[in-house]
Amino acid sequence: MRVLVTGGAGFIGSHIAAAHLDRGDSVLIVDNLYAGCRGSVPEGAQFAEADIT
pLDDT value at position 53? Predict the structure, then answer.
């Protein structure tokens, strides 16, 4: 399954993304890094820095 996680560089979003990656899903994370950290993005996830507000 392909999964989009917004806010995926934050605590909750990064754990949700990691759980999907563990299931074998393809994960795209979109985050503006206002409160998140690029280092929190799980390995294997695609990442796009963007503000969608």
Answer: 84
Which DSSP symbol is given to 40? Answer: G
- Which of 31, 29, 27 shows the shortest CA–CA distance to 3? 27
Count of structural domains, the chain: 1
Which residue's structure tokens are 């759980």? Answer: 19
Tens of pLDDT, residue by residue over 12-45, are 999 999 999 999 999 999 999 999 999 999 999 9
Burial of 42 (0-12, 13-18, 19+ CB in 10 A): buried
Domain of residue 18 covers 2-49
Query: How remote is the C-alpha of 43 from its chain's centroid?
Result: 10
CB 3, CB 27: distance < 8 Å: yes
